[in-house]
Automatic annotation (TrEMBL):
UniProt-listed SUPFAM superfamilies: alpha-helical ferredoxin (SSF46548), Nucleotide-binding domain (SSF51971)
InterPro entries in alphabetical order: DPD_II (IPR028261), FAD/NAD-bd_sf (IPR036188), FAD/NAD-binding_dom (IPR023753), Helical_ferredxn (IPR009051), SudA-like (IPR006004)
Official protein name in the record: Glutamate synthase (NADPH/NADH) small chain
A Pfam family matched in the record: Pyr_redox_2
Organism from which the protein derives: Desulfurispira natronophila
This protein's UniProt keywords: Oxidoreductase
Tagged with keyword Oxidoreductase: yes
Amino acid sequence: MAELTPKERMAIERHPMPEQRPEDRVKNFDEVPLGFADENAKREAARCLDCKTPQCVEGCPVRIDIPAFIKLIEKGDFDASAKKLRETNFLPAICGRVCPQDQQCELVCIIGKRGKPVAIGSLERFASDYERDNGLRKVPEVAASTGKKVAVVGSGPAGMTAAYEIRKRGHDVTVFEAFHRGGGVLVYGIPRFRLPLAVIDEDINFLEQMGVKFMYNTIVGKSMSLDDLMGPEWGFDSIFVGTGAGLPKMTGVPGENLNGVYSANEYLTRVYLMGANNFPDNVTPLYQGKKVGIIGAGNTAMDAARTAKRLGADVTVYYRRSEEEAPARTEELHHAKEEFITFKFLSNPTEFVGDDNFFIRQIKCDVMELGEADDSGRRRPQPTGESFVDDCDTAIMALGCDVNPIIPTSNPEIEVNKWGVVVANPETGATSKKGVFAGGDLITGGSTVIQAMGQAKVAAAALHEYVMSNGNAFGYWQD
């Protein structure tokens, strides 16, 4: 299609990703989007104008050469397209599924100014899936051994990326993970209908094939300290920490401690990490009633709502602002509505009411209206004086998370800000503790997969320079 004029390319309509029907998918945990067929991918790729100054690249935190990989799809060279992606992105199959492209690369796509942007995320997924499905992925080349040992704490997107970038440079890398399997928030926080386990496992397996070692069921900060890791027993020359933001926020309203009230973090972890949806085949139980209330309207709220629906509940989402202020991706809200989730916007829970056995039975809410904009730029919700009560036998709080506090509290010399977020040099990822670098939600308080990856790449490059100078590079830290 190289002969197409820009006008002809812009006339091609965006190709929608085929999906499972809502009536079918609420009965299973299989992935909802089904992926492009070859010809559909080539047709969608033909919409790219191959701009001289591609804004999409600027909109990507890891600077993927987006026009280059898309043009290779248009030419039908899908394997080369996947290889082009992997030059800058170790996790394209994951990013193609969970990145908020509508807020990053696709937001600034030139075609999007006159119509719908090129489906960059869907094409990224297509190329990486083609590579995996056809057994074309090769184990990355690793540089000759440097004799240096590096510990990576946490195996989420930041930890996986750091391990890849550091191992690629020839260092001996060990990843420490608190849970019994790798992937971090990708495993315990994102439902299988959005991100299949096989996609995550493929990347973990490739790290292992590169020589990265994993030590599971080990909580650094409890099982051993950072100083232990850099001491004579373990002998690590440097540490990258990517332990994320996994401390749930709660509402603080009466009844919050009743049976049947969960944080979204606990609820999703029980289902997706511990397999509670298959109890008693798996030993972790999950109490869930027939009427489930979700508090919040972000992506995690949509994940919890859609999971509860698949487990047979009648689900209502309560959010104190309007739909326009909801922080969830447009696609996630759309999918939730398709799956028969009820939304009660401008509703603020004020109490959970229990029975004599301390199980939740009702939820009380204030009816809200929007006032002037607050510091976040969104209109401030305020009570109207009206209220209502709904039956509810399970409530799930999806109000965001704070930084995992184990590393900061066990290492008081690591500087944190007033919200407990670790302070790191944005150009190096260096923390205030010598030899310790950090990236991901630990230094942002909560961000996207690809932003965590970008920070991990920056920190890995600086960490490499640090260890190769035997701890003397840059004068980061004074002895």
